[in-house]
Amino acid sequence: MIKKLLTVSISLVLAAGSSLAFAEAKVTAGKDKAASCAGCHGEDGNSMMPGFPKLAGQHQAYLVKQLQAFKSGARNSAMMAPLAMGLDEQAVNEISAYYAAQKISKNPAPTLPADDSDDDAPTKTDEQKKAELDDLIEQGSDLYRNGNIGREVSACVACHGPYAEGNKPAAYPALHSQHADYLIKTLTDFKNGARTSNRENMMYMIAKKMTDEDIKAVSYYISTLK
After folding, report:
1. Domain boundaries, position 61
2. 164: left (phi over 0), alpha (psi -120 to 50) or beta
3. Mind telling me which PROSITE patterns this protein's record contains (predicted)?
4. How far apart are CA 45 and CA 39, in angstroms?
């Protein structure tokens, strides 16, 4: 009996070691194949440009799903489509595994962009700017956690989790520490139908009910989550 237990234990250890080695090999291969992505997304998936998303720490299943969508045309992007078309299934999985294994970077303290729409408006003091930003982030926090019942805007927390960590089994993306500018663009694209042509898409149905102020507020809030 003891001999059988030892045999089973050793087999499990060897299997676990083999799986770990396979996973590490996949990540290594993914790093090499992701070299062409570094210009926009950063070498380790932490984009330095706020218009391009951070991919570090994103769920592998979600990344695979998005690359497949770019390949099939289900998700439109003149930039990403030709790159994704050149990837086979193995490359898609390896690149996704590499980015999923990286750690997302924290964002610096947020600042509101300068408002150039009214040149005659009095210049705001630093205290006024901080108060405005604090109000915006508080508004975003409330919308993220509670939604807006009056306009039938669902709470983000339901799918993306209390800390915007996403839902790995459901392939709902992690959003924490993402660039606010990218989140604003993404939600705006969903709202305008530019992100998807499927009018039954859950994000389209939510975003179309959001105001521009809602989108800005929740994006800034999410960008502060770690």
Report:
1. 14-100
2. left
3. CYTC (PS51007)
4. 10
CATH number of the domain to which 219 belongs: 1.10.760.10
Residue 172 DSSP SS3:
strand
Q: What is the pLDDT of residues 30-41, one digit of tens each?
A: 999 999 999 999
Question: pLDDT digit string (tens) for 177-186?
Answer: 999 999 999 9
Report angle CA 216, 221, 222 to the nearest 5 degrees.
Answer: 100
Taking the CA atoms of 18, 19, 25 and 29 in sequence, report the sign of the dihedral they define: positive
Give the predicted TM-score (pTM) of the model.
Answer: 0.86
State how far the Cα of 209 lies from the Cα of 153, in Å rounded to an integer. 6
**Residues facing residue 148 across a β-bridge:** 153
In a domain, 107, yes or no: no
Task: Indicate the Cα dihedral angle 90, 77, 215, 119, nearest 10°.
Answer: 140
- Decide: 156 and 217 in contact? Cβ < 8 Å: no
**Residues 6 or more apart whose Cβ sits within 8 Å of residue 214:** 143, 148, 153
Residue 13 pLDDT = 46
Name the amino acid, one letter, at 85. M
Residue 200 CA: distances (Å) to CA of 12, 80, 135, 209: 45, 24, 33, 14
Number of domain units in the chain: 2
167: pLDDT confidence band, cut at 50, 70 and 90?
Answer: very high
**pLDDT tens column, 151-163:** 999 999 999 999 9
